[in-house]
Design brief:
16 strands, Beta-lactamase, 2 domains, five-stranded antiparallel sheet, five-stranded mixed sheet, alpha+beta
């Protein structure tokens, strides 16, 4: 038997703590498995302590789920490995005699309405050569596998391309102090005309399904109205050349691709990858996610090939995941993507090990503070955010995976998937919010 001398008070405190944590884990486990809300769909959940290398709670952790925008965690990690956090390659080019021959890398920042990077424009303006743009657009389909055709009017499904310009959208916006709304870019190549339809709302802008013509209407009685809306345009090498030519102010000839990438060529750095990661993750920007995977393929394969970039990432960066990712696009728009909770946890562990925590906090949405969870998972008044996580939403599919900071100073990893539920996803979110706060407060 132990005496008071052989079993000091310090050990009693540790036993009490272990008992308390054990009870907390049991309560979390019970909530996950018996919640009436969670039972209304197919749920996967895993909670992991990376310091103890211990799985605390798991449910259907080895089953595959449609991840929606949790796919962007895979895109982020692959991009971080392939591109780092420095400047990305915005243009490939080579000189041949009196000619400057260039082609796109997938860089989404060129005159993008949120970045408005003009590095490429200034480079081409200052070139004392004839300009030739290589048509490598056929290497990339405008939509990803399984995307829906009727998403064409919405920014969340802006077309992918080898050389995006203006974010591949027309932005129609109005400041509160101005009476008129304006397009960006303002160009005859993307004609914008007043609508003949009667309109009772604040504003609208719509594009023709088969061509790049737009109609708009605005309620001029509401002068204090401020808005910005992005409408994708139909991409093509010819349109991009023409828009680029207009911005540069010099003639640009479009030429066929003759495997220029296989010969010696130079690269033009443009924006910091950090800025792309933060916007992609925080607001769940599908266009940036897709183009980042194009940039990955350019970096590792020297070609425009999202499928090849994904295959390379799976082989070189993700081979140690417990279950092979069924991964087909960069954004998660495709319902053909499927991951398991334990593979997502393994990926989060890799990120936690390789990416500084201050960068994780800068990239991931913060509960109650920023991005897609600014209205959810709020910390106690005066306390910092305790959830840094990526959301995911498609029809009958929601997800949340990331990092949970507890009041006791621990950093836990969690991954949650809901598939095949009916009704509003807010019901599951409210229940999950209570669960995650309990873990934050008690563990």
């Amino acid at each position: 038997m132990y005496s008071a001398k052989t079993f000091p008070m310090k050990n009693c405190k540790w036993l009490c703590l272990l008992f308390f944590f054990s009870c907390t884990v049991q309560k979390i486990n019970k909530t996950v498995r018996t919640s009436d809300v969670f039972e209304k769909g197919h749920m996967g959940f895993m909670l992991y302590d990376p310091v103890k290398d211990k799985t605390l709670v798991k449910l259907n952790e080895a089953k595959y789920f449609i991840p929606a925008s949790n796919t962007k965690i895979f895109t982020f990690y692959s991009s971080y490995k392939a591109l780092g956090d420095g400047y990305i390659n915005g243009l490939n080019y080579t000189y041949q005699g009196d000619s400057l021959i260039f082609w796109g890398t997938g860089d989404p920042s060129l005159l993008h309405p949120d970045f408005k990077d003009s590095t490429v424009i200034n480079f081409l303006k200052n070139a004392d050569k004839k300009l030739y743009m290589v048509n490598n657009f056929e290497q990339l389909s405008s939509y990803g596998p399984g995307w829906s055709w009727n998403w064409f009017p919405y920014y969340f499904a802006a077309e992918r391309s080898a050389m995006p310009i203006y974010g591949n959208v027309l932005r129609y916006s109005k400041k509160a102090e101005l009476a008129e709304a304006t397009p960006y870019p303002k160009t005859v190549l993307l004609p914008l005309m007043p609508s003949s339809q009667t309109h009772s709302g604040n504003y609208f802008i719509q594009r023709d399904f088969k061509k790049n013509t737009y109609e708009y209407a605005i309620n001029k009685e509401k002068d204090s109205l401020a808005f910005a809306t992005d409408k994708p345009f139909i991409t093509s090498a010819n349109l991009t050349r023409n828009l680029l030519q207009e911005a540069v102010g010099k003639q640009i000839s479009l030429i066929n691709n003759k495997d220029y990438s296989k010969s010696s060529h130079e690269k033009l750095p443009t924006v910091k990858a950090d800025s792309l990661y933060a916007q992609m993750m925080k607001i769940s920007d599908n266009f940036l996610a897709e183009q980042l995977m194009v940039l990955v393929s350019d970096a590792v394969l020297d070609s425009i090939n999202i499928r090849g970039g994904i295959s390379y990432a799976k082989e070189h960066y993700l081979a140690d995941l417990p279950d092979e990712p069924q991964w087909v696009d960069g954004s998660g728009l495709s319902p053909q993507n499927m991951f398991t909770p334990r593979s997502v946890i393994k990926l989060l562990h890799k990120i936690h090990t390789e990416v500084p925590m201050e960068k994780i906090k800068a990239y991931f949405p913060a509960g109650g503070e920023s991005g897609t969870i600014r209205n959810w998972y709020r910390a106690d008044p005066g306390e910092p955010a305790y959830i840094y996580a990526k959301t995911g939403t498609l029809a009958m599919s929601t997800a949340l995976s990331g990092f949970l900071l507890t009041k006791s100073g621990k950093t836990l990893l969690f991954s949650t998937f809901f598939n095949n539920y009916t009704g509003s996803s807010s019901v599951q979110k409210k229940e999950l919010q209570k669960l995650l706060y309990f873990i934050h407060d008690k563990y």
